[in-house]
Design a protein that fits this description.
- By secondary structure, the chain is mainly α.
- The chain has one domain: Up-down Bundle (Monooxygenase), CATH 1.20.1280.
- It contains four helices and no strands.
- It has helices at about 5-15, 20-30, 35-55, 60-84.
- Helix 1 (about 5-15) packs parallel to helix 4 (about 60-84) and helix 2 (about 20-30) packs parallel to helix 4.
- Pfam families: PQ-loop.
- Keywords: Membrane, Transmembrane, Transmembrane helix.
- This is PQ loop repeat protein.
- It is a multi-pass membrane protein.
Length: about 80
């Protein structure tokens, strides 16, 4: 594995998994009052575009990191919509 690919995978893992505590907390307490719906909609859209970009250029770190982030952000977004 190239050093640049490894760097991309590590960076992607760190930024992606930074959402796990938010997902777990939101899921556990079902409290989303302090989460901005607009911010998560914009962020979800940005991640979706990064994911699409990664697929188009066939870049594994971008695809993996943004694919997982897309799922995590989608979960928080759905919880925000459900619990307001």
């Amino acid at each position: 594995m190239e050093i640049i690919t490894a760097l991309g995978l590590i960076a992607g893992a760190l930024t992606t998994f930074s959402f796990v505590p938010q997902v777990l907390k939101t899921w556990k307490f079902k409290e989303t009052r302090d989460i901005s719906l607009l911010m998560y909609i914009i962020f979800f859209t940005g991640i979706l575009l990064w994911f699409t970009y990664g697929i188009l250029i066939k870049n594994t770190p971008i695809i993996i990191a943004n694919g997982i982030s897309l799922v995590l952000v989608f979960i928080v977004l759905m919880l925000k919509i459900r619990y307001g």
